[in-house]
Predict the structure.
Amino acid sequence: MKKQKRKSEFLYFALRNKKLQVGLIIVLFFLLLSFIGPTLAHNEPLAYVNPGGAEPPSSEYWFGTTFFGQDVFAQFVYGLRATFLVGIIGGGLGTLIGILFGFTAGYRGGIVDEILNILTNIVLVIPTLAVLLIIAAYLEVRSILMECIFIGFTAWPWAARAIRAQTFSLRTREFVDLARMSGMKPLKIVFTEVAPNMMSYLVMTFILQFGGAILNAATLDFIGLGPTNAVSLGLMMKLAVLWGALQLGSWWWFIPPGLAITAIVGALYIMNVGLDEVFNPKLREM
Amino acid sequence: MSLQAENLTVYYQTLHGDVRALEDATFTVADGEIMGLAGESGCGKSTLCNSLILLTPPMKLVRGSVILDGTELPLTDMEGMNPFRFKKISIIPQYAMNALNPTRKIGKMTAELLRSRKVDFRATLPELKRRLDLVELTHDVLSMYPIELSGGMKQRMVMVLSTLMNPSLLIADEITSALDVSTQKAVAEMLVEFRDREIVKSLIVITHDISILYQIADSILIMYAGQLAEKASTEVIIHSPRHPYTKLLISSLPEIGVKHAEKRLTGIPGNPPLLLDPPVGCRFRERCPVAFEKCLEVPPFIQVEKDHFVACWKEFETHAQA
Amino acid sequence: MLKLDRISKVYKIGTFGGKELYAVSDVSFDIQDGQVVSLIGESGSGKSTIGKMILRLISTSSGAILFNGVDVSSLKGEALKEYRRSVQGVFQDPFSSYNPIFKADRVFKIIREEFFPEMEGAEWTEKVEQSLTAVGLNPAHVLDKFPHQLSGGQLQRFLIARALLLDIRFLVADEIISMLDASTRIDVLNLLADLKSRGLSVLFITHDLSLGYYISERAVILYRGCVAEMGTTEKIYNSPLHPYTKMLMASVPRLDKKWEDAEVELKAKQAEFTGGCVYYARCPVADKALGCDAFRPPLIEIEPDHFVACFRYE
């Protein structure tokens, strides 16, 4: 009975938290758009449908067309899909690696912690741009998956650090000592005692990684190091600027993607703050 | 100085309802008296003292009044209480010694504290130094960081700070709990010295350790689950208590000289009640060995002998017959 | 049953780990079957460190811990798990010993998974109920509850019940009642005494001398990692020899007499230890002529079962 009451108390606060509500609505809206959008758009994103070139939004082309006569709305909704994909896979990968390194370093301590720390710091200071340029030079074709993997493998240090710190503080608690005295193996202790206590922390870390991955991807796309054969919001903005949208005044080409990225990432961060309030009762405004 | 509390009742507002932490506390502290306030966790002793200094939400004053030196304290008026706080009535909060800002030197922190109370630091410096001598702290302590001081030293520093303005009443909330046995003795004796030198007029010493109170307190007030149980001089409470709770409490304290093999002490079965929905009447009723039907009514806290107050229907019965 | 033989624990401190801090230094004492020994010391005395070393939660820097003749200080793997069947511990903070997001009886489940994986459900339930009644808890009241729904006293007894499930021979009780209310303390203390009569040995770690007197046969007084005095409880309490023990006895607040005017010197932050007797800096009767500042006094037996480490008694 008490467990039910606890769950509902958590939900009670979760659903009432303004920041969580607002953030969630925005993200879900764009997510929904990315699902049903492509069915609404009757054109292929890269197809040259409008011989007239860049045209402002009209009833036929809701978001107008690009310099090349492509349907901006079609590009937009397909780009949204790519964006969310990068967020989930790239962010998820970063979180997973961060969890792996963070728990190990935090729980074991000692020499293992030292080594992992050095590794974390190295990856942290690697100039990702330089590495990416080198990779780009070798790979002719880059897919979205490549981008996800790359982002995941370079974004994890932040997560690892945070998780390590939390694990350190939880590891010295007496219930962990009790588990050790009961003969539990360290791995089991981490997963059954420490991790569940950090659930809120892990969720928030994932959300931050998600948002960070999206921003990273947008930046990479914008400078031309993104995938070569896909559509994404960042790519849209890059092409828009490259092909003179600013000079020609074709605002409909770069404002929707830019706005969308800002809105999604901003909403994610607001959700994060809201979640923090939900998980940490001391921050709640009564 | 004199403190008179009349029907002081304070509840905590929570999501689930009101926690009735303090119910109808009526007592007096006389001039020069060191009153010990003892009871187990949840009995309301901290609530009582916090309400005298800072009654902020989630605490709310349900009824009652407190008169200090003839003036009624405007407990719920934050601004109105300012002239009283620190100058007339002061508190050493629990864990105060751990609350010293680790990034500030002690001297700087003191100056900031005094400035916030609109007191000139320079002018008080000589007196501050005299007080430091009194508690056997060197003057260098003012230029040290808290981490450089031991637990006992920090506690003494906090004592000096809280009494700098010579308050009439000093409330010491569990100031000896976190200290070693040897430091406890020194700190407790220092409290008495403050009173003897008239730096403070009276003291309320909150603790769960009754043996310390036996050493330094003139009288002891026992509380249980938000209600006052008994108040009398220290000798009487220890050697001839009347309230059933006090009797059981005193007899459950292990003493040097008492071995388990020789005399098995007993505790009080059961647990203190939750104060969200406390039992009707006397809250000790359910654990009391002599409870009877009248106990469903709240017993008043009245004087049965000179300076001996009890809240127990059974005792009133026996007293009436005596 | 348990014998500590010259146990030490050293921590490296200072930048680059240059300096050494001896949390425990050359401590030796033993505990017989069915005996309760109080390990008494203030903060910084190393008593908790010793407890944790016995429980194998911390490694020893040197010395041996002999449990029924076998050195357990370097056991690993299966042998260590076997050791855990005989030796368990209960700590100071009852609420911190439970994982707050799980129910309290999860600690029992862990024991079952680790030590009794093949036991049948009904047999296990009976075993649990037996344990709970042995510690004075009603199974119907305490099972299936979260830690915050139980009181401190109940939680501590729960932990003792957990230890009993393993049929232990030795319990390390590290300040187990200091966070409990006065009325429940004595119940838990009585419980320990009852278990002792069934053959359980207890190392009762505390800073409260009156508790030590009530429950233990022998006492070990610890100061800054070294044994100051050791012996039967009566001898230590009634005729303390070491200056530190005398100071402790004089400072304990008692209900039968007032503090004497013995001057208790307040200590500054622990100065660095430079060799010689650990108590030298605070000792009122220290004497350079006896070598108090240069050499560490050995533990010698003054009368049967009363040892003291002080040059004044050579």
Observations:
- The CA atoms of residues 92 and 176 of chain C lie 4 Å apart.
- Chain C has one domain: 2-313.
- Chain C has ten helices and twelve strands.
